[in-house]
Amino acid sequence: MQENNKQESVSSIDIIREGRINKAQELRDKGINPYPYKFNKTASAKELQEKYKDLKEGEETTDRYSVAGRVIAIRNSGMFIDLMDDSGKIQIFSHKQNIDAEKLKLLKLIDIGDIMGFIGDIRRTPRGELSIKAVDFEVLTKSLKPLPEKFHGLTDVETKYRKRYVDLIINEETRQTFKKRSLIIQKIREFLAQRGYLEVDTPILQTVASGANARPFTTHHNALDMDMTMRIALELYLKRLIVGGVSEKVYEIGKCFRNEGIDTRHNPEFTMIELYQAYADYNDMMELTENMVAYVAKEVLGTTKIKYGENEIDLTPPWDRKTMIGAIEEYTGKDFMSCSNLEEAVKMAETIGVNTAECSSWGQVIDAVFEEKVEPSLIQPVHIIDYPLEISPLAKVHRSNKRLTERFETRVNGWEIANAFSELTDPIDQRQRFEAQALAKANGDEEAMEIDDDFIEALEYGMPPTGGMGMGIDRLVMLLTNSPTIRDVIAFPTMKNKQ
RNA sequence: GCGUCUGUAGCUCAGUAGGUAGAGCACUCCCCUUUUAAGGGAUAGGUCGCGCGUUCGAAUCGCGCCAGACGCACCA
Which one of A168, A195, A214, A399 has the fewest beta carbons within 10 angstroms of its own beta carbon? Predict the structure, then answer.
Protein backbone atom coordinates (compact mmCIF):
# COMPACT_ATOMS: atom_id res chain seq x y z
CA MET A 1 0.00 0.00 0.00
CA GLN A 2 1.06 3.56 -0.68
CA GLU A 3 2.66 5.55 2.10
CA ASN A 4 1.55 9.09 2.69
CA ASN A 5 5.08 10.35 2.37
CA LYS A 6 5.54 8.90 -1.08
CA GLN A 7 8.56 10.24 -2.87
CA GLU A 8 8.19 12.64 -5.78
CA SER A 9 9.52 10.76 -8.72
CA VAL A 10 12.82 12.20 -9.86
CA SER A 11 13.65 11.67 -13.50
CA SER A 12 17.16 11.19 -14.77
CA ILE A 13 16.95 14.52 -16.54
CA ASP A 14 16.45 16.26 -13.19
CA ILE A 15 19.36 14.39 -11.66
CA ILE A 16 21.63 15.29 -14.55
CA ARG A 17 20.55 18.91 -14.45
CA GLU A 18 21.12 19.19 -10.75
CA GLY A 19 24.56 17.63 -11.08
CA ARG A 20 25.50 20.17 -13.71
CA ILE A 21 24.20 23.09 -11.68
CA ASN A 22 26.38 21.82 -8.86
CA LYS A 23 29.38 21.70 -11.19
CA ALA A 24 28.72 25.30 -12.19
CA GLN A 25 28.66 26.19 -8.52
CA GLU A 26 31.93 24.35 -7.96
CA LEU A 27 33.47 26.47 -10.69
CA ARG A 28 32.16 29.63 -9.03
CA ASP A 29 33.57 28.45 -5.71
CA LYS A 30 36.97 28.30 -7.39
CA GLY A 31 36.52 31.83 -8.67
CA ILE A 32 35.64 30.73 -12.19
CA ASN A 33 32.59 32.22 -13.91
CA PRO A 34 30.85 29.38 -15.76
CA TYR A 35 29.26 31.98 -18.07
CA PRO A 36 32.06 34.40 -18.94
CA TYR A 37 31.86 37.25 -21.45
CA LYS A 38 34.39 36.72 -24.17
CA PHE A 39 36.91 34.37 -25.64
CA ASN A 40 39.63 35.20 -28.06
CA LYS A 41 39.17 32.56 -30.73
CA THR A 42 41.98 32.58 -33.27
CA ALA A 43 41.00 29.72 -35.56
CA SER A 44 38.04 27.62 -36.61
CA ALA A 45 38.13 23.85 -36.73
CA LYS A 46 37.84 23.83 -40.50
CA GLU A 47 40.61 26.35 -41.02
CA LEU A 48 42.96 24.17 -38.99
CA GLN A 49 41.83 20.94 -40.66
CA GLU A 50 42.58 22.49 -44.03
CA LYS A 51 45.78 24.25 -43.12
CA TYR A 52 47.30 21.14 -41.53
CA LYS A 53 45.85 18.49 -43.80
CA ASP A 54 49.34 17.42 -44.82
CA LEU A 55 50.69 17.18 -41.27
CA LYS A 56 51.98 13.66 -40.82
CA GLU A 57 50.71 11.20 -38.26
CA GLY A 58 52.51 11.64 -34.97
CA GLU A 59 53.94 14.99 -36.04
CA GLU A 60 53.93 17.88 -33.58
CA THR A 61 54.18 21.62 -34.14
CA THR A 62 54.59 24.64 -31.93
CA ASP A 63 51.86 26.49 -33.81
CA ARG A 64 49.58 27.83 -31.11
CA TYR A 65 45.87 28.52 -31.56
CA SER A 66 42.81 29.08 -29.47
CA VAL A 67 39.70 27.29 -30.58
CA ALA A 68 36.20 27.34 -29.16
CA GLY A 69 33.06 25.35 -29.56
CA ARG A 70 30.81 22.75 -28.05
CA VAL A 71 32.11 19.59 -26.41
CA ILE A 72 30.40 16.77 -28.30
CA ALA A 73 32.43 13.80 -27.10
CA ILE A 74 34.73 12.99 -24.21
CA ARG A 75 37.02 9.96 -24.23
CA ASN A 76 39.58 8.57 -21.83
CA SER A 77 38.33 10.56 -18.85
CA GLY A 78 38.66 13.86 -20.63
CA MET A 79 42.05 13.31 -22.22
CA PHE A 80 40.35 13.47 -25.61
CA ILE A 81 37.55 15.88 -26.35
CA ASP A 82 35.81 16.44 -29.66
CA LEU A 83 35.08 20.12 -30.01
CA MET A 84 32.58 21.29 -32.62
CA ASP A 85 32.18 24.80 -33.92
CA ASP A 86 30.14 26.10 -36.85
CA SER A 87 32.80 25.00 -39.30
CA GLY A 88 33.45 21.46 -38.13
CA LYS A 89 35.21 19.36 -35.54
CA ILE A 90 38.64 19.23 -34.00
CA GLN A 91 40.01 16.95 -31.30
CA ILE A 92 41.44 18.35 -28.09
CA PHE A 93 44.24 16.42 -26.43
CA SER A 94 44.70 17.29 -22.77
CA HIS A 95 47.64 15.57 -21.20
CA LYS A 96 49.04 16.09 -17.71
CA GLN A 97 52.44 16.80 -19.22
CA ASN A 98 51.09 19.95 -20.79
CA ILE A 99 48.51 21.31 -18.38
CA ASP A 100 48.90 22.49 -14.82
CA ALA A 101 47.75 19.76 -12.42
CA GLU A 102 45.18 21.95 -10.66
CA LYS A 103 43.77 23.10 -13.96
CA LEU A 104 43.57 19.55 -15.22
CA LYS A 105 41.27 18.64 -12.32
CA LEU A 106 38.73 21.11 -13.66
CA LEU A 107 38.20 18.78 -16.62
CA LYS A 108 36.15 16.63 -14.26
CA LEU A 109 33.60 19.42 -14.22
CA ILE A 110 33.19 19.37 -17.99
CA ASP A 111 30.19 17.68 -19.60
CA ILE A 112 29.25 16.88 -23.13
CA GLY A 113 27.37 19.91 -24.35
CA ASP A 114 29.48 22.55 -22.61
CA ILE A 115 30.95 25.39 -24.62
CA MET A 116 34.71 25.52 -24.12
CA GLY A 117 37.73 27.40 -25.32
CA PHE A 118 41.09 25.61 -25.62
CA ILE A 119 44.55 27.00 -26.19
CA GLY A 120 47.30 24.78 -27.44
CA ASP A 121 49.58 23.56 -30.20
CA ILE A 122 48.64 21.72 -33.33
CA ARG A 123 49.67 18.11 -33.64
CA ARG A 124 48.45 15.03 -35.40
CA THR A 125 48.11 11.97 -33.22
CA PRO A 126 49.70 8.67 -34.21
CA ARG A 127 46.19 7.50 -35.06
CA GLY A 128 45.85 10.34 -37.53
CA GLU A 129 43.54 12.74 -35.76
CA LEU A 130 44.43 16.42 -35.98
CA SER A 131 44.42 17.72 -32.42
CA ILE A 132 45.05 20.71 -30.25
CA LYS A 133 47.56 19.75 -27.58
CA ALA A 134 45.97 21.84 -24.88
CA VAL A 135 48.03 23.94 -22.50
CA ASP A 136 45.07 25.82 -21.10
CA PHE A 137 41.32 25.97 -21.39
CA GLU A 138 38.32 27.94 -20.26
CA VAL A 139 34.72 27.03 -19.61
CA LEU A 140 32.68 29.42 -21.74
CA THR A 141 29.19 28.10 -21.03
CA LYS A 142 28.13 25.37 -18.65
CA SER A 143 25.27 23.42 -20.21
CA LEU A 144 22.59 21.92 -18.01
CA LYS A 145 20.76 19.59 -20.37
CA PRO A 146 22.22 16.37 -21.76
CA LEU A 147 22.53 16.02 -25.51
CA PRO A 148 20.99 13.12 -27.39
CA GLU A 149 23.03 9.98 -27.67
CA LYS A 150 26.06 10.17 -29.92
CA PHE A 151 25.46 7.21 -32.16
CA HIS A 152 21.79 7.37 -33.14
CA GLY A 153 21.57 11.09 -32.44
CA LEU A 154 18.21 12.78 -32.61
CA THR A 155 15.80 11.14 -35.04
CA ASP A 156 12.39 11.92 -33.57
CA VAL A 157 10.95 14.31 -36.14
CA GLU A 158 8.67 16.10 -33.72
CA THR A 159 11.60 16.95 -31.46
CA LYS A 160 13.68 17.98 -34.46
CA TYR A 161 11.08 20.58 -35.39
CA ARG A 162 10.13 21.74 -31.91
CA LYS A 163 13.69 21.89 -30.62
CA ARG A 164 15.62 22.78 -33.74
CA TYR A 165 18.55 23.96 -31.65
CA VAL A 166 19.12 20.38 -30.54
CA ASP A 167 18.69 19.09 -34.08
CA LEU A 168 21.32 21.57 -35.25
CA ILE A 169 23.77 20.63 -32.51
CA ILE A 170 23.42 16.96 -33.32
CA ASN A 171 22.77 16.59 -37.02
CA GLU A 172 25.30 17.72 -39.58
CA GLU A 173 22.73 17.23 -42.31
CA THR A 174 20.44 19.80 -40.68
CA ARG A 175 23.29 22.26 -40.38
CA GLN A 176 24.09 21.78 -44.07
CA THR A 177 20.48 22.35 -45.09
CA PHE A 178 20.23 25.68 -43.33
CA LYS A 179 23.63 26.82 -44.52
CA LYS A 180 22.51 26.01 -48.05
CA ARG A 181 19.25 27.82 -47.54
CA SER A 182 21.12 30.95 -46.61
CA LEU A 183 23.48 30.57 -49.55
CA ILE A 184 20.59 30.06 -51.97
CA ILE A 185 18.98 33.31 -50.87
CA GLN A 186 22.32 35.10 -51.00
CA LYS A 187 22.88 33.88 -54.56
CA ILE A 188 19.41 35.01 -55.62
CA ARG A 189 20.23 38.48 -54.33
CA GLU A 190 23.55 38.37 -56.12
CA PHE A 191 21.91 37.33 -59.40
CA LEU A 192 19.35 40.12 -59.19
CA ALA A 193 21.87 42.73 -58.12
CA GLN A 194 23.92 41.90 -61.21
CA ARG A 195 20.85 42.74 -63.26
CA GLY A 196 20.15 46.04 -61.59
CA TYR A 197 17.27 44.98 -59.35
CA LEU A 198 16.42 47.09 -56.32
CA GLU A 199 15.52 45.19 -53.16
CA VAL A 200 12.60 46.72 -51.28
CA ASP A 201 10.36 46.10 -48.28
CA THR A 202 6.60 46.35 -48.30
CA PRO A 203 4.03 46.04 -45.53
CA ILE A 204 3.27 42.71 -43.90
CA LEU A 205 0.39 44.17 -41.90
CA GLN A 206 -2.26 45.21 -44.35
CA THR A 207 -5.89 46.20 -44.38
CA VAL A 208 -6.55 44.38 -47.65
CA ALA A 209 -4.85 41.05 -48.18
CA SER A 210 -4.87 40.55 -51.92
CA GLY A 211 -2.64 39.46 -54.77
CA ALA A 212 -3.27 35.76 -54.35
CA ASN A 213 -6.07 33.29 -53.79
CA ALA A 214 -5.77 32.43 -50.13
CA ARG A 215 -7.31 33.01 -46.75
CA PRO A 216 -5.38 35.49 -44.62
CA PHE A 217 -4.59 35.58 -40.93
CA THR A 218 -6.42 38.40 -39.25
CA THR A 219 -5.26 40.54 -36.37
CA HIS A 220 -6.02 43.86 -34.75
CA HIS A 221 -4.17 47.10 -34.23
CA ASN A 222 -5.12 48.45 -30.83
CA ALA A 223 -4.07 52.10 -31.08
CA LEU A 224 -5.74 52.49 -34.46
CA ASP A 225 -8.59 50.23 -33.40
CA MET A 226 -8.34 48.65 -36.83
CA ASP A 227 -8.60 45.06 -38.02
CA MET A 228 -5.64 44.06 -40.09
CA THR A 229 -4.48 41.04 -42.05
CA MET A 230 -1.09 39.54 -42.66
CA ARG A 231 -0.05 39.64 -46.30
CA ILE A 232 -0.69 36.63 -48.51
CA ALA A 233 1.46 37.92 -51.38
CA LEU A 234 3.92 40.67 -52.19
CA GLU A 235 2.40 41.50 -55.55
CA LEU A 236 0.28 44.61 -55.23
CA TYR A 237 2.70 46.73 -53.21
CA LEU A 238 5.60 45.85 -55.48
CA LYS A 239 3.54 46.95 -58.49
CA ARG A 240 2.81 50.23 -56.72
CA LEU A 241 6.57 50.71 -56.58
CA ILE A 242 6.79 50.03 -60.32
CA VAL A 243 4.12 52.70 -60.80
CA GLY A 244 6.19 55.03 -58.63
CA GLY A 245 9.22 54.26 -60.72
CA VAL A 246 11.73 54.21 -57.88
CA SER A 247 13.36 51.54 -59.97
CA GLU A 248 12.28 49.77 -63.15
CA LYS A 249 13.33 46.51 -61.52
CA VAL A 250 12.29 45.71 -57.97
CA TYR A 251 12.11 42.61 -55.85
CA GLU A 252 11.33 41.56 -52.33
CA ILE A 253 12.17 38.42 -50.41
CA GLY A 254 9.92 37.99 -47.44
CA LYS A 255 7.44 36.04 -45.43
CA CYS A 256 3.85 35.60 -46.55
CA PHE A 257 1.13 34.06 -44.44
CA ARG A 258 -1.76 31.88 -45.52
CA ASN A 259 -4.34 30.50 -43.17
CA GLU A 260 -4.55 27.05 -44.68
CA GLY A 261 -3.70 23.45 -44.09
CA ILE A 262 -0.22 22.20 -43.33
CA ASP A 263 1.45 19.42 -45.28
CA THR A 264 4.80 18.47 -46.72
CA ARG A 265 4.77 21.42 -49.11
CA HIS A 266 2.81 24.05 -47.13
CA ASN A 267 3.66 25.95 -43.96
CA PRO A 268 1.37 28.77 -42.78
CA GLU A 269 4.26 31.21 -43.00
CA PHE A 270 6.61 30.80 -45.89
CA THR A 271 9.16 32.81 -47.81
CA MET A 272 8.47 34.19 -51.26
CA ILE A 273 10.40 36.19 -53.72
CA GLU A 274 8.54 38.38 -56.14
CA LEU A 275 10.20 40.50 -58.76
CA TYR A 276 8.92 43.00 -61.31
CA GLN A 277 10.60 44.41 -64.36
CA ALA A 278 9.18 47.32 -66.33
CA TYR A 279 9.04 47.05 -70.13
CA ALA A 280 9.33 43.27 -69.89
CA ASP A 281 6.71 40.58 -70.56
CA TYR A 282 6.20 37.01 -69.51
CA ASN A 283 8.65 35.73 -72.11
CA ASP A 284 11.38 37.73 -70.40
CA MET A 285 10.24 36.30 -67.07
CA MET A 286 10.61 32.74 -68.32
CA GLU A 287 14.17 33.44 -69.30
CA LEU A 288 14.88 35.17 -66.00
CA THR A 289 13.31 32.36 -63.97
CA GLU A 290 15.29 29.56 -65.53
CA ASN A 291 18.53 31.52 -65.51
CA MET A 292 18.09 32.49 -61.89
CA VAL A 293 17.41 28.93 -60.73
CA ALA A 294 20.24 27.55 -62.85
CA TYR A 295 22.62 30.21 -61.50
CA VAL A 296 21.71 29.42 -57.92
CA ALA A 297 22.05 25.66 -58.44
CA LYS A 298 25.42 26.10 -60.11
CA GLU A 299 26.71 28.41 -57.38
CA VAL A 300 25.38 26.40 -54.46
CA LEU A 301 25.71 22.83 -55.72
CA GLY A 302 28.22 23.27 -58.50
CA THR A 303 25.88 21.74 -61.06
CA THR A 304 22.51 22.23 -62.70
CA LYS A 305 21.82 18.50 -62.71
CA ILE A 306 20.30 17.68 -59.36
CA LYS A 307 18.83 14.66 -57.63
CA TYR A 308 15.58 14.87 -55.75
CA GLY A 309 14.50 11.60 -54.22
CA GLU A 310 14.42 9.11 -57.07
CA ASN A 311 14.38 11.78 -59.75
CA GLU A 312 17.26 13.24 -61.69
CA ILE A 313 16.32 16.78 -62.62
CA ASP A 314 18.18 18.81 -65.18
CA LEU A 315 17.86 22.52 -64.48
CA THR A 316 20.05 23.55 -67.39
CA PRO A 317 18.32 26.29 -69.44
CA PRO A 318 16.45 26.70 -71.66
CA TRP A 319 13.49 24.93 -70.09
CA ASP A 320 10.65 23.33 -71.95
CA ARG A 321 7.54 25.42 -72.63
CA LYS A 322 4.08 24.00 -73.10
CA THR A 323 0.75 25.74 -73.30
CA MET A 324 -1.64 24.65 -70.61
CA ILE A 325 -4.25 23.59 -73.18
CA GLY A 326 -1.58 21.80 -75.22
CA ALA A 327 -0.21 19.96 -72.20
CA ILE A 328 -3.68 18.73 -71.33
CA GLU A 329 -4.21 17.52 -74.88
CA GLU A 330 -0.84 15.80 -74.78
CA TYR A 331 -1.73 13.84 -71.64
CA THR A 332 -5.47 13.25 -72.19
CA GLY A 333 -6.05 13.62 -75.91
CA LYS A 334 -8.74 16.22 -75.18
CA ASP A 335 -8.71 19.70 -76.68
CA PHE A 336 -10.46 21.96 -74.21
CA MET A 337 -10.01 24.93 -76.51
CA SER A 338 -12.78 23.36 -78.53
CA CYS A 339 -15.16 23.85 -75.60
CA SER A 340 -16.68 27.27 -75.80
CA ASN A 341 -18.24 27.38 -72.33
CA LEU A 342 -18.36 25.86 -68.87
CA GLU A 343 -20.94 23.19 -69.72
CA GLU A 344 -18.99 21.80 -72.66
CA ALA A 345 -15.80 21.80 -70.62
CA VAL A 346 -17.46 19.97 -67.73
CA LYS A 347 -18.80 17.38 -70.14
CA MET A 348 -15.38 16.83 -71.64
CA ALA A 349 -13.74 16.64 -68.19
CA GLU A 350 -16.23 13.99 -67.13
CA THR A 351 -15.23 11.77 -70.05
CA ILE A 352 -11.78 11.54 -68.50
CA GLY A 353 -12.99 11.19 -64.93
CA VAL A 354 -12.13 14.61 -63.54
CA ASN A 355 -14.38 15.92 -60.79
CA THR A 356 -15.56 19.41 -61.69
CA ALA A 357 -18.09 19.95 -58.91
CA GLU A 358 -16.26 23.00 -57.62
CA CYS A 359 -15.75 24.58 -61.03
CA SER A 360 -17.77 27.58 -62.05
CA SER A 361 -15.95 28.62 -65.20
CA TRP A 362 -14.28 27.15 -68.26
CA GLY A 363 -10.93 28.20 -66.83
CA GLN A 364 -11.48 26.42 -63.54
CA VAL A 365 -12.27 23.18 -65.38
CA ILE A 366 -9.01 23.54 -67.29
CA ASP A 367 -7.22 24.08 -64.00
CA ALA A 368 -8.81 21.01 -62.40
CA VAL A 369 -8.02 18.79 -65.36
CA PHE A 370 -4.46 20.05 -65.51
CA GLU A 371 -3.86 19.49 -61.84
CA GLU A 372 -5.15 15.95 -61.90
CA LYS A 373 -4.00 14.68 -65.26
CA VAL A 374 -0.85 16.58 -66.09
CA GLU A 375 0.85 18.05 -63.08
CA PRO A 376 2.10 14.85 -61.40
CA SER A 377 4.01 13.93 -64.57
CA LEU A 378 5.94 17.17 -64.86
CA ILE A 379 9.21 16.22 -63.22
CA GLN A 380 11.65 18.06 -65.48
CA PRO A 381 11.42 21.85 -65.42
CA VAL A 382 8.74 23.20 -67.70
CA HIS A 383 6.96 26.50 -68.11
CA ILE A 384 3.25 25.92 -68.46
CA ILE A 385 2.05 28.96 -70.36
CA ASP A 386 -1.15 30.74 -71.29
CA TYR A 387 -3.54 30.23 -68.40
CA PRO A 388 -7.28 30.80 -68.72
CA LEU A 389 -8.49 34.33 -68.08
CA GLU A 390 -10.93 33.46 -65.27
CA ILE A 391 -8.26 32.07 -62.98
CA SER A 392 -5.70 34.78 -63.66
CA PRO A 393 -7.09 38.11 -62.40
CA LEU A 394 -3.77 39.93 -62.33
CA ALA A 395 -2.45 38.92 -65.75
CA LYS A 396 -2.83 40.66 -69.10
CA VAL A 397 -5.12 39.11 -71.65
CA HIS A 398 -3.10 37.06 -74.11
CA ARG A 399 -2.13 39.18 -77.09
CA SER A 400 -3.44 36.55 -79.51
CA ASN A 401 -6.28 34.83 -77.61
CA LYS A 402 -8.89 36.64 -75.54
CA ARG A 403 -9.78 33.55 -73.46
CA LEU A 404 -6.24 33.22 -72.17
CA THR A 405 -3.73 35.33 -70.33
CA GLU A 406 -0.02 35.82 -70.62
CA ARG A 407 0.73 33.84 -67.55
CA PHE A 408 2.96 30.89 -66.86
CA GLU A 409 3.66 28.64 -63.96
CA THR A 410 6.96 26.83 -63.77
CA ARG A 411 6.78 23.21 -62.67
CA VAL A 412 9.68 21.22 -61.34
CA ASN A 413 9.33 17.83 -59.72
CA GLY A 414 5.57 18.16 -60.14
CA TRP A 415 5.48 21.29 -57.98
CA GLU A 416 4.70 24.83 -58.88
CA ILE A 417 7.84 26.76 -58.13
CA ALA A 418 7.09 29.98 -60.01
CA ASN A 419 4.06 31.95 -61.16
CA ALA A 420 4.48 34.85 -63.53
CA PHE A 421 2.62 37.16 -65.86
CA SER A 422 2.71 39.96 -68.27
CA GLU A 423 1.19 42.11 -65.55
CA LEU A 424 -2.23 43.58 -66.09
CA THR A 425 -1.74 47.34 -66.34
CA ASP A 426 -5.16 48.49 -67.58
CA PRO A 427 -6.95 49.89 -64.51
CA ILE A 428 -10.43 49.50 -65.99
CA ASP A 429 -9.79 45.86 -66.89
CA GLN A 430 -8.21 45.29 -63.47
CA ARG A 431 -11.29 46.62 -61.71
CA GLN A 432 -13.53 44.30 -63.71
CA ARG A 433 -11.32 41.33 -62.87
CA PHE A 434 -11.44 42.16 -59.17
CA GLU A 435 -15.19 42.52 -59.38
CA ALA A 436 -15.47 39.06 -60.91
CA GLN A 437 -13.42 37.81 -57.94
CA ALA A 438 -15.68 39.66 -55.53
CA LEU A 439 -18.65 37.93 -57.12
CA ALA A 440 -16.99 34.54 -56.71
CA LYS A 441 -16.29 35.39 -53.09
CA ALA A 442 -19.92 36.34 -52.55
CA ASN A 443 -20.81 32.96 -54.00
CA GLY A 444 -18.76 31.18 -51.39
CA ASP A 445 -15.23 31.04 -52.81
CA GLU A 446 -13.32 31.92 -49.65
CA GLU A 447 -10.03 32.20 -51.49
CA ALA A 448 -11.21 34.62 -54.16
CA MET A 449 -9.18 37.79 -54.37
CA GLU A 450 -10.02 40.98 -52.49
CA ILE A 451 -10.57 44.23 -54.36
CA ASP A 452 -7.74 46.61 -53.59
CA ASP A 453 -9.02 50.07 -54.52
CA ASP A 454 -5.80 51.86 -53.77
CA PHE A 455 -3.93 49.50 -56.06
CA ILE A 456 -6.37 50.24 -58.87
CA GLU A 457 -5.88 53.94 -58.22
CA ALA A 458 -2.14 53.42 -58.54
CA LEU A 459 -2.73 51.75 -61.94
CA GLU A 460 -4.78 54.78 -62.96
CA TYR A 461 -1.64 56.90 -62.65
CA GLY A 462 -0.11 54.55 -65.17
CA MET A 463 2.06 51.47 -64.81
CA PRO A 464 4.48 50.65 -67.58
CA PRO A 465 4.19 47.27 -69.30
CA THR A 466 5.72 44.95 -66.73
CA GLY A 467 6.73 41.39 -66.33
CA GLY A 468 6.46 39.91 -62.85
CA MET A 469 7.37 36.62 -61.24
CA GLY A 470 6.87 35.03 -57.84
CA MET A 471 8.68 31.99 -56.50
CA GLY A 472 8.41 29.98 -53.31
CA ILE A 473 11.84 30.06 -51.74
CA ASP A 474 11.12 27.15 -49.43
CA ARG A 475 10.28 24.84 -52.31
CA LEU A 476 13.37 25.92 -54.18
CA VAL A 477 15.41 25.11 -51.09
CA MET A 478 13.67 21.75 -50.80
CA LEU A 479 14.63 20.93 -54.37
CA LEU A 480 18.24 21.99 -53.99
CA THR A 481 18.72 20.26 -50.65
CA ASN A 482 16.78 17.11 -51.52
CA SER A 483 14.46 17.71 -48.56
CA PRO A 484 11.26 15.64 -48.52
CA THR A 485 9.24 18.13 -46.48
CA ILE A 486 9.03 21.89 -46.20
CA ARG A 487 9.56 21.55 -42.45
CA ASP A 488 13.10 20.43 -43.17
CA VAL A 489 13.95 23.79 -44.74
CA ILE A 490 12.12 26.07 -42.28
CA ALA A 491 14.09 26.39 -39.07
CA PHE A 492 11.03 26.65 -36.85
CA PRO A 493 8.03 25.22 -38.70
CA THR A 494 4.56 25.91 -37.37
CA MET A 495 3.57 23.29 -34.80
CA LYS A 496 0.52 22.86 -32.68
CA ASN A 497 0.99 23.67 -29.00
CA LYS A 498 1.54 20.68 -26.80
CA GLN A 499 -0.82 20.78 -23.86
C1' G B 1 -11.77 18.12 -41.49
C1' C B 2 -11.41 12.43 -42.66
C1' G B 3 -8.44 7.81 -42.64
C1' U B 4 -4.06 4.80 -41.28
C1' C B 5 0.02 4.46 -38.11
C1' U B 6 2.97 6.21 -33.87
C1' G B 7 3.79 8.01 -28.47
C1' U B 8 7.91 3.31 -22.81
C1' A B 9 14.36 6.63 -18.90
C1' G B 10 17.60 12.78 -21.39
C1' C B 11 18.48 10.03 -26.44
C1' U B 12 17.90 5.35 -29.53
C1' C B 13 14.92 1.24 -28.84
C1' A B 14 13.10 -3.80 -26.52
C1' G B 15 8.86 -5.62 -23.79
C1' U B 16 5.34 -10.53 -21.42
C1' A B 17 -1.88 -15.34 -22.83
C1' G B 18 -3.18 -8.66 -18.81
C1' G B 19 0.64 -10.20 -13.09
C1' U B 20 3.06 -4.13 -11.75
C1' A B 21 9.23 -2.44 -16.92
C1' G B 22 14.46 -3.63 -19.55
C1' A B 23 19.07 -2.68 -22.82
C1' G B 24 22.78 0.56 -25.08
C1' C B 25 24.45 5.56 -24.93
C1' A B 26 24.34 9.82 -21.53
C1' C B 27 24.62 10.78 -15.82
C1' U B 28 27.22 9.43 -10.71
C1' C B 29 31.37 6.62 -8.38
C1' C B 30 35.79 3.42 -9.06
C1' C B 31 39.79 1.48 -12.42
C1' C B 32 42.39 2.98 -16.83
C1' U B 33 46.68 8.07 -19.79
C1' U B 34 47.30 8.14 -27.03
C1' U B 35 41.46 7.47 -27.63
C1' U B 36 37.88 7.60 -32.27
C1' A B 37 30.43 5.03 -30.63
C1' A B 38 37.57 4.26 -26.14
C1' G B 39 37.51 0.10 -22.54
C1' G B 40 36.40 -2.61 -17.58
C1' G B 41 33.42 -2.56 -13.00
C1' A B 42 29.42 -0.67 -9.76
C1' U B 43 25.21 2.55 -9.06
C1' A B 44 21.20 5.70 -9.98
C1' G B 45 17.35 7.15 -13.11
C1' G B 46 10.30 5.66 -15.30
C1' U B 47 2.88 9.50 -13.59
C1' C B 48 4.94 3.39 -19.96
C1' G B 49 1.39 10.81 -23.94
C1' C B 50 -3.29 12.25 -20.71
C1' G B 51 -8.10 10.69 -18.71
C1' C B 52 -12.05 7.30 -17.93
C1' G B 53 -13.57 2.29 -18.08
C1' U B 54 -13.21 -3.41 -17.98
C1' U B 55 -10.46 -6.49 -14.41
C1' C B 56 -8.48 -9.12 -8.16
C1' G B 57 -4.66 -6.75 -11.25
C1' A B 58 -3.67 -2.49 -17.30
C1' A B 59 2.38 -0.09 -20.56
C1' U B 60 -0.61 -4.38 -22.60
C1' C B 61 -7.81 -4.71 -23.62
C1' G B 62 -12.02 -0.78 -24.70
C1' C B 63 -13.60 4.38 -25.16
C1' G B 64 -12.40 9.56 -25.20
C1' C B 65 -8.71 13.34 -25.52
C1' C B 66 -3.62 15.44 -26.71
C1' A B 67 0.63 15.54 -29.94
C1' G B 68 3.21 13.79 -34.30
C1' A B 69 4.07 11.20 -39.20
C1' C B 70 1.91 9.72 -43.73
C1' G B 71 -2.25 9.77 -47.19
C1' C B 72 -6.86 12.21 -48.76
C1' A B 73 -9.41 16.83 -48.73
C1' C B 74 -8.03 21.92 -48.84
C1' C B 75 -4.20 24.74 -50.86
C1' A B 76 -0.18 26.71 -55.56
Answer: A399
CATH architecture observed for domain A172-319+380-488: 2-Layer Sandwich (3.30)
pLDDT recorded at residue A6: 37
pLDDT in tens, A264-298: 999 999 999 999 999 999 999 999 999 999 999 99
* Amino acid residing at A132: I
- A12-141: CATH class: mainly beta
Output the pLDDT for position A466: 98
Instruction: Enumerate residues 6+ apart whose C-beta is below 8 A from A34.
Output: A23, A24, A27, A28, A139, A141, A142
| Same fold for the pair A12-141 and A172-319+380-488 | no
CA pair distance A494, A496, nearest whole angstrom = 7
Question: Which nucleotide lies closest to A129 by the C1' atom and the CA atom?
Answer: B36
ipTM: 0.92
**What residue segments make up the domains of chain A, in order of their start?**
12-141, 172-319+380-488
* Smallest CA–C1' distance to B45, residue: A12
Nucleotide nearest to A149 (CA to C1'): B11
Q: Which nucleotide shows the minimum CA-to-C1' distance to residue A358? A: B74
Q: How far is the CA of A265 from the C1' of B65 (A)?
A: 28
CB A400 within 8 A of CB A422: no
pLDDT at residue A7 greater than cutoff 70: no
